[in-house]
Amino acid sequence: MAPHSVSGADSRSVPQRVLRTVGAGVGLGALAGLGTLAYSAGFEVRNFVVRRVEVAVLPPGRRPLKVLHLSDLHLTPSQGTKRRWLASLAELEPDLVVDTGDNLAHMDAVDPVVEGLGALLDVPGVFVFGSNDYFAPTVRNPVWYLLPDDGNRNVHTPKLPWKDLRAAFESRGWRDLTNTSARLEVGGTSLAFVGVDDPHLEYDDLAAVAGPAPTDVDLRIGVAHAPYLRVLDQYARDGYDLTLAGHTHGGQVCLPVKGAIVTNCDLDTGRAKGLHRHPADSRPGDPQSSWLHVSAGAGTSPYAPVRLCCRPEATLLTLLPLPS
Question: What is the Cα–Cα distance from 191 to 181, expressed in whole angstroms?
Answer without folding.
Answer: 11
